[in-house]
């Protein structure tokens, strides 16, 4: 069993624990929170789990193999570095970090701790439907373009409209649409087509000073991929890849729970609906590597994910740069 410790006590941590336990590979052993009661809420119902309110004591715990980090984006970098320095494997929520410098800094730290594994929880590219689409595109000669959309109205935008600044819409916390839902379509594009030759990002800035939504255009020479993502409006658009008379389609760019191909109005299912907790495939993939790190296939997958993560970080950094968005490197306390 992989012994799991968590940072961050919002709903996503509970969803990840549910997925981790569903794989049968993990056991929750430790929870960190700044507040005992929030930690207890996460630990509750999972048996013998220690709740820590001191980060260093949590990171020093002997009965923790991997740390899942679901804190505000701006805190990821320092928490990842500290976890690696304590020889803990890391699964960090997207976006892993906010700048290219931070990413390089993590690679440097990993080289000092070669036994440590570092994963980004970008669940969409671990979904069965994503693999089916990628395999299909491997056998396709050339594509004509793609449109990926992931837009969900955030209930926390109501707070913005009421004059508050929740973390996800706070520039000091690395908030905004690109560093949130935007990560998923960037992952889809980089995972399927690689790093674009040219790119542009046109954000809609909101009162708190972050991008509430935006459109990015990634140019791959012969074709363009358009990414639409929003936290201040919703969309039911499917994601589409154009190939002559064919449309390869999957649901939202962030979910990728099913995939089809449409030819002359006839739909053929490529990958049926994945109806379970969508964090199961990624947690299962990470467990495979952690359980058998010397396996050749596992090593190849791990290095491919690490390279993909770096390419996504590069594309996100360039998109932010294009739009004049600067992310904070650390949390400035008031
Ligand atoms: N994969 C997905 O589907 C998904 C979904 C949602 C979010 N996410 C990612 O998960 C991460 C967390 O997002 P979120 O919306 O849950 O963030 P959040 O609610 O703002 O904060 C998450 C947790 O971080 C801790 N925290 C909050 N403010 C802090 C501060 N000032 N200093 C130190 N710790 C603080 C809190 O835990 P304690 O109070 O217990 O310390 C809180 O529960 C982000 O990277 C986001 O992109 C992923």
Automatic annotation (TrEMBL):
Q: A Pfam family name for this chain?
A: GFO_IDH_MocA
Where the record annotates domain Gfo/Idh/MocA-like oxidoreductase N-terminal, the positions are 2-109
Q: What GO MF terms are annotated?
A: nucleotide binding
Query: InterPro entries from the entry?
Result: Gfo/Idh/MocA-like_OxRdtase_N, NAD(P)-bd_dom_sf
What Gene3D superfamilies does this protein map onto?
Dihydrodipicolinate Reductase, domain 2, NAD(P)-binding Rossmann-like Domain
SUPFAM superfamilies recorded: Glyceraldehyde-3-phosphate dehydrogenase-like, C-terminal domain, NAD(P)-binding Rossmann-fold domains
Taxonomic superkingdom: Bacteria
By what name is this protein known?
Gfo/Idh/MocA family oxidoreductase
What is the scientific name of the source organism? Fructilactobacillus cliffordii
């Amino acid at each position: 069993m992989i012994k799991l410790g968590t940072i961050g006590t919002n709903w996503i941590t509970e969803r990840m624990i549910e997925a981790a336990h569903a794989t049968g590979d993990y056991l929750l052993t430790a929870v960190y929170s700044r507040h005992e009661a929030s930690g207890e809420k996460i630990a509750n119902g999972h048996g013998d789990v220690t709740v820590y309110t001191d980060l260093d004591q949590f990171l020093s715990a002997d009965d923790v193999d991997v740390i899942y980090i679901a804190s505000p984006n701006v805190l990821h970098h320092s928490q990842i570095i500290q976890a690696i320095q304590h020889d803990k494997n890391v699964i960090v929520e997207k976006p892993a970090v906010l700048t290219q410098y931070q990413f390089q800094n993590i690679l440097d730290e990993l080289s000092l701790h070669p036994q440590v594994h570092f994963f980004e929880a970008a669940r969409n590219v671990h979904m069965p439907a994503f693999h089916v689409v990628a395999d299909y595109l491997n056998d396709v000669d050339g594509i004509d373009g793609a449109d990926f959309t992931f837009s969900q109205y955030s209930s926390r935008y109501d707070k913005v409209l009421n004059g508050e600044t929740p973390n996800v819409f706070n520039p000091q916390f690395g908030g905004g649409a690109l560093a949130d839902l935007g990560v998923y379509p960037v992952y889809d594009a980089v995972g399927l087509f690689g790093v674009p030759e040219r790119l542009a990002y046109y954000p809609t800035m909101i009162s708190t000073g972050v991008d509430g939504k935006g459109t990015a255009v990634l140019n791959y020479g012969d074709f363009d991929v358009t990414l639409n993502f929003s936290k201040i409006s919703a969309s039911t658009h499917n994601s589409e890849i154009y190939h002559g008379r064919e449309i390869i389609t999957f649901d939202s760019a962030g979910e990728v729970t099913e995939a089809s191909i449409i030819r002359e109005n006839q739909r053929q299912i490529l990958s049926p609906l994945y109806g379970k907790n969508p964090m199961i495939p990624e947690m299962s993939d990470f467990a495979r590597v952690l359980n058998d790190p010397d396996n050749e296939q596992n090593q190849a997958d791990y290095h491919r994910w690490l390279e993909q993560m770096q390419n996504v970080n590069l594309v996100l950094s360039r998109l932010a740069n294009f739009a004049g968005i600067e992310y904070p490197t650390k949390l400035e306390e008031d």
